[in-house]
Amino acid sequence: MNAPSPRRLVALMALAGALSAALPAWSESAQGAVSTEAGQLAVRQEKFTLANGFEVILVEDHRLPLVAFNLWVHAGPRNEARGQTGFAHLFEHLMFAGSRHVPRGEFDKFVDAAGGTDSNGSTNFDRTNYFFTLPSNQLEKGLWLKSDMLGWMIDEVDSVALANQQDVVRNERRQSFENRPYGIVEEALYQALYPEGHPYRAAVIGSHADIQSIQLKDVKDFARTYYRPNNATLVLAGDFDPRQAKALVQKYFGSLKPGAKLPEVKVATPEITQERRLVVTDRIELSRLNLAWHTPPMFAAGDAELDVAAHVLGGGKASRLYGLLVRDRQLAQSVQVSQDSQSLSSIFNIELIARPGASLDEIEKLVDAEIAKLAATPPSEAELNQARATIQTQLLQRMEKVTSLADLINHYNQMAGDPGYVGKDLARYAGTTPAAVSATVARWLKKDSRVVVQALPGEQVLPPEVATPPMPTKAAKGEREALNALEAWRSKPPAAAKAKPLTLPAAQSFTLANGLTVIHSAKPGLPLVSASLTVRAGQGANPADKPGLAGFVAAMLPEGTKTRSAQQIAESLAGLGATLNAQAGSEEARIEFSGLKASAKEGLALLADVALNPAFEGAEIERQKAQRLAALAQAREEASLLANVVGNRVVYGDAHPLAANALGTEASIKAVDAATLRGFWQGHYRPERAALVVAGDLTEAELRALIEPLFGAWKPTGEAAPAAPLPSPRPIAARTVVVDKPGAPQTALAVVAPGPLASAPDWAAVEVMNAALGGLFTSRINNQLREVKGYTYGIFSGYAMGRERGQFGIRGSVRTDVTGAALSDMWKEIQAMRSKPMGAAELTRVRNARLLSLPGSFDTNQAVVGAYAANWAVGRPLSAIAEEPGKLAAVTAAAAQKAARDHLDPAQLIVVAVGDKAKVLPQLQAIGRKAEVRDAEGKPQP
């Protein structure tokens, strides 16, 4: 239930990017819907239309016992009336607030109880979608829920529901735009690109004034016009019988009344004939440059060429701008280039965040030179092939998961008018030539037709504050109406069919002669492979005087080996269309690879090379220092990150290895040298302390043949670092810490305390208890603070149970003026969880939410690898994953309450509040909480 920022809108649909012509020689088994017969990617699907105009697309795929329900309503901001920005997104929220046959607040509870995953909605400029994935025996219940949303939501929406969701959406705006670095900059960019009256001008989420001005009559008018069966499409993707599915779709959607013919949206593409420049100040540490152009609409001539150009200029570490500005000149912290394709017009956007002290004007000149070069000289065939390979892998990964596969089909159906458009999409990229890319860049990316936005550190200037009216306590008479006839039989939820046995992806383990553990989970089907080399070399291994060292070592691994430079590694990965990332967590470091099966041999060779033969070259170390120092500055921009950093320092104590920022400190970063990095690597990156976890379309024999030559000869060099256990957090009394962020529209909260380890025998009871407290969208804390009070966009709790480190945390942001009230409500929910066992209905719902959703949590190679790598890292046996369903099923209400009493002690909870001190402190005093003030590093302030 969220609205992505304009920068991310196309990410929800443009992963449909397209494949190159060079597809692997592979065809899906009869179990799956996706195939590449004769090198042609295709998805087996069937489309039909009911008499009322409702479109249905069936994608039969039996790889997992899951069904994805993906409903698109073909309305977004492009359909909003003037002065009603954010309406489509507000309506998305209202769709979850209750319907005629699904009482308010119960929709998500039904999804939880059924074992649903990926339940949400999203709005972009062209459409609104509503989706969840359920176990396949819940096909009928899913259709019952979706049909009631579409046909009978209007029966229940009233002034109370509207006011509540207006508060929620405005909190989302505060969190996503006003309290997020560069949020208002992105909004300013769109306002500079599009004139008044254009539907793309405002952010999808809308303005505070427009959101608050929406009236109940407006909601009903919008529903009558757009939320009708003849303006919606449902994609079912997954494990079902098509004949049964058709009959059930007719049963649940066939009686919905169609609406009138929809008003056409006719909007000319804006034309910029003279460069527009603006400067936006924001509460940021690092300056940012955006260069943006209007470009052809999605799937129009030139769209594919500009997509390729985006990859060439800024599509990763092998791209031209990354190499020039990040790696060589070290003027930029990051670079992103995208062709953001939309139905009315697209935007080509170049975004660069500058290093401290770097000149945006200098960066702009260098970018202009690269654009001019690309416009004059075609890219190389190698660059074109790298772009195609990346798009190819991304699209296949998009199809790996039935949730995203269903959304992709809906995307093609609306935007191209053909759910089977994938083949034609591929043809666009196969037919693209270097000369065409160059000519298209010259045609569209002209200096006099662009918008230039410089974001600089300074005062954040926002429109005048719009008051939040008191929440109405009850609806007035006559507020409700109906679009469709009452059908009494819908009041009874359909029963589930017989469930298939709950099984999770199996894995086998074997050990190489040098002690390296190998964990393999075969996942035939799509020709994809993921791997993770997981090493017990996390932040907990940092020497006391070298915070951040584990993360620095991990970050250096892909930046050069004894035989490959950083650039060569980046180019090799780009040519494979693969990804390889390395990072350190609290207790372990991971080097992760994902790509096509055809690239597995070379990809695993790259992984082995960076892990076993790092160069730690001087110039790369200095570049990484600058990168990490800038990232440290960036971390001060994010209120939620600050809350976590300060929370760790307070909970663990200054001397603990996990107390400091994972990046380290300015002093520790500057002090790093090659000897320090190599010493840590030699002491911790050792085969007997590592596990290689692989999942995907590889047999054990194929895997052994790949890894034996790569890892079999791995011999540790130097002495092993002592395997000293992490010290326990020092006993600490409850306290409240405030970090001042003057003018912040929200307070970021982190309520933290030590927690149990993964070895705790009651870990399953802890998870079920937490699901009820704050782990689910329907949890007590989120329901009270979001759905009842409208204080927050979302606030959740969780336990991080590690091998030697455990922590509990409640995290989220609340409106500044209700910080104290939100904490009071939170404490009431904690006390209630400790004082009384859950009722039978709540226990069943939250236990099923964890238990029955397990298959949906293992639906990609990366998910399987992540689960088994985490399982190994925390010291659990391989069998623990297979045993998880039984452990969760056995949790009782009494066990969950005992877990709360044992592992949720209010006397240990530390509250960290990052917000406007002048407004927050009086609220804390009013609820009887004394607060200490600390700075952004967690050091006490006077």
Automatic annotation (TrEMBL):
Which keywords are on file for this protein? Hydrolase, Protease, Signal
For this protein, the record's PANTHER family field holds: METALLOPROTEASE, MITOCHONDRIAL-PROCESSING PEPTIDASE SUBUNIT ALPHA
Q: Which InterPro entries match?
A: Metalloenz_LuxS/M16, MPP/UQCRC_Complex, Pept_M16_N, Peptidase_M16_C
Which branch of life, at top level? Bacteria
- Which EC numbers characterise this protein's activity in its record? 3.4.24.-
Residue limits of the Peptidase M16 C-terminal domain?
213-389, 672-849
Instruction: Provide the family line.
Output: Belongs to the peptidase M16 family.
- What is the official name of this protein in its record? Zinc protease
The signal peptide, as residue positions, is 1-27
Q: Which GO terms describe its biological process?
A: proteolysis
What general EC class does the enzyme of this chain belong to? hydrolase
Gene Ontology MF: a single term: peptidase activity
Q: Which residues form the Peptidase M16 N-terminal domain?
A: 56-195, 519-639
Signal: present as a keyword of the record? yes
Offer one Pfam family short name for this entry.
Peptidase_M16_C
